[in-house]
Every structure is written in structure tokens, then in C-alpha cells.
Amino acid sequence: MTVSNKLKLNLANLAHRQFRDDEFWRVIPGWSNVSRAEFSDHMWQMKHSIKKVDQVKTILGDLCTDSFYQDMQKGQAKTPMNIRITPYIFALMDWSDPINCPMRKQFLPIGSQFLEDHPYYEADSLHEDVDSPVPTITHRYHDKVLFLPTTICPVYCSYCTRSRLIGGSTEAVEKDTYGVNQARMDVAFDYIRSHEEIEDVVISGGDAFMLTAKQFTFIGENLLNIPHIRRLRFATKGVAIYPQKVLTDHEWFNALNGVHKKARDMGKSMVIHTHFSSPKEITMFSKLAMDRLFAEGIIVRNQAVLQEGINDNINDMLLLIKQISYMNIQPYYVYIHDMVPGCEHFRTTIAESVALEKAVRGMTAGFNTPTFVCDAPGGGGKRHVASYEYYDQENGISVWTAPNVKPGEVFFYFDPIRKLSKEAQARWADKASREAMIAAAKKKAGF
Length: 447
Ligand code: SF4
Fold this sequence. Notes:
CATH topology of the largest domain: TIM Barrel
Strand order of the largest sheet: 1-2-3-4-5-6-7-8-9
CATH class of the largest domain: Alpha Beta
Radius of gyration: 22 Å
Number of strands: 12
Bound molecules: iron/sulfur cluster
């Protein structure tokens, strides 16, 4: 599809006010007798999560064709991410067309989807490990740290930027996945305590939905008790893929709310950053979970990832933005996809992201309009997608700086080679020629 076709907008409906509330899971043969009460229970969701290809086949029965099963098997040899899918998300996949389903694409890898990685991909494309002064901490921005207490999530996303760590080793990638560990946390807290410039802590991973109530309280209270810490952000995809946790795990919800209330009492803030990327992830379960969080005054913001075939057209992107806004989630960022392994099929170009950003702007209130950003490979941090220093669109080379993050350094983002002209693809195939193109782009940018 061309960029212009993807920007044709259908404004005629108010689909964002409709939340599906049918028993959609009953179309899955293995769950045809599962009641609403069972499906709504967070324990049932965890217990019946999909973790193996054979489980997919058993649960789908005749809905799983032999060719799709073989494609899943082939995917296991290539994917950097293991399978872990809540029944909620699995049942929202379109099993009449799984190859093209945006939900399947995000969470269930198949062999036929993978493309060759870009020559300049990196397992740690954002250099989080390079900017890590102690284990579990990345300190890149002056007043903010990223804290990764766990590398376990309730689902594993095929597009994960931390695939080097998250969710255990696969046939293709060896990883040092870890769970919550007291000694590591003590080191992290000591680091934060001894750096008075830090005001903001993002607790990510991994996923905050996998912290127990006790761990949530321990982490939240210890950080809030550090005098210079003003803001906590718990990052989780849970609201999108496991809303049952908010609705039925009362002990955990009370722990979360307890940290929120303690923060308020101290004149500080605790918010949730979540991660809806497709409007197809949204149902009445999402709305009810958000109603519960909103009733307690807990602020939730969204960070989506721009992905081909999932949200790279104006109608899906606008529906996503309007529907999460309707649920009182603030659309905060849309990230252009990081240059990590196994994700070339998801990536879009800088030009496409700029065009989509322009198309979205003005469709709703400014505070509900996300900023489209490129997280500059090499650790430059998040930059607005149109703020590059120079963009050689023909060869897909953009040049970036980050004066407040890494003064004096120059960063590059590269568009997917498959989206370039045949001539440009030929230039990329030759090492000397691509190095010359990059040097020329850098020079044109004035460096
Ligand atoms: S929830 Fe976040 S950290 Fe976990 S697999 Fe998905 S993108 Fe990665």
C-alpha cells in the first residue's frame, strides 16, 4: 500500500465509542465452554496462557491448518522471542486469516514473516547496556533512570526492543533472563540514592504486571522514600493484554493503589505507562480496567510502536488514539520501530512516520495527540520524527543529534532496505557503497 492510500481517512463513524463485549473466546474450540466468570479471572488467564506451538494446535483444533502449524514451527527456529500469550489476546486474533491478523503478527511468530536483518541492526540498538552504570539501571537522561527489576512479562511481543533479555532463550538467541532479585535491587536503589540529579524513575522490564503485590509495594515505597525522587512510572503492557489483572487481582491492585496514594500524600506522582498498539487489542475488559484505575485517579499514558500491517495507516492509528483517549488513557508516544533483530518486517520508514504524524495531527485535542518519535540508535534518546538533521530519503539514511543527551555525537536511523528503490537496494548490497552513502549523509548534515 502506498503512503497516500494509507492516509485516506474514514471519519464517518464513531467506532471509538464501541467496545466489544461479546464472548469472543468461545470461537476458539478449546475454550468454547469457558464462562465469562472464568475468562474474567486473572488466575485463569495466567494458567491457560499459550507457551508452546503444540498448545496452539491443540486449542485451535480444526482452525489450525497444517501449513500454519508448519509455519509456526519454522518461526521457532528464527524468533528472538519465546511465545507467551494470554488467552484474552489469543482469542482476539483473527483465526480465519491468521497470516494477516495484526494481533497474530504482534505475538505469535511464524517462519514466513521473517526478513533478513538490516546490516546495522543491533541486539541492544538503544545502547541501554552501554549507558548502564550498575546492573538493572540505564542512566541516559540527566534527571531520569530506567530500572529493570525483572525481565518477565505476561505476554512476549514479537517486536520487543529488549529481545536480548526478555522472556528466556530461544533456539536463535541465548539470553540472561532474570526475575526480581534483592541484591540487584539494593545496588540499583543505592545508585539512585547517591545521584541527587535523578527525579524520575521508569520501572520497566519486563513488566510491572509480573511483580507480586509485595514487590510492587517494596519497589514503590523504597523509591518514593528517596528524597530527590519526584516521579515513578510503572511500565506495563498489562492494561492492553491482561486487563483481568486490574479487575480481579485485588491484592495486587491495592498494592498499586497504595503506592499511588503514598506518592500523592508525599506530593509526588506514580503513573502507569502502557502499550496499546492496535485498536483490536481494545474490548470492554480494557474499558472496565481503565474505569477502575481512573476512579482511583491513577494516570495512564500510552506508548505505541509503529508497525507495518498493524497500525501504519490513518484509520487504525486514529481509531487507536481516539479509543484509548475515550478510556482516559493519554496517547503519549508512537515510536518508530527500533533496529533490533527479527523485526525487519515490522519496520516503517521515517517518511512514513512523518506522513502519519501529519495526518493524525488536528484530528483530536492536542493533549490526546501522540508525539511520533525515533529513539536514536546508539543511545541518542527519543527525537521527534521530523527533527532529523538530514534525511537522504532515496537511500533511507537519517542523521540525528541529541545535544542534551550525548552532546557532540551523531546518530543514524536507517529505513528498511526493502522499501527503497531497486537502485538504492543495490547500493546497500555493497559494503563500500553503503559506507560512502552514510559518510555523504553525515557530511550533508554538517558533520
Ligand atoms: S511487554 Fe514490553 S518488555 Fe515485555 S515483551 Fe512486550 S515489549 Fe518486551
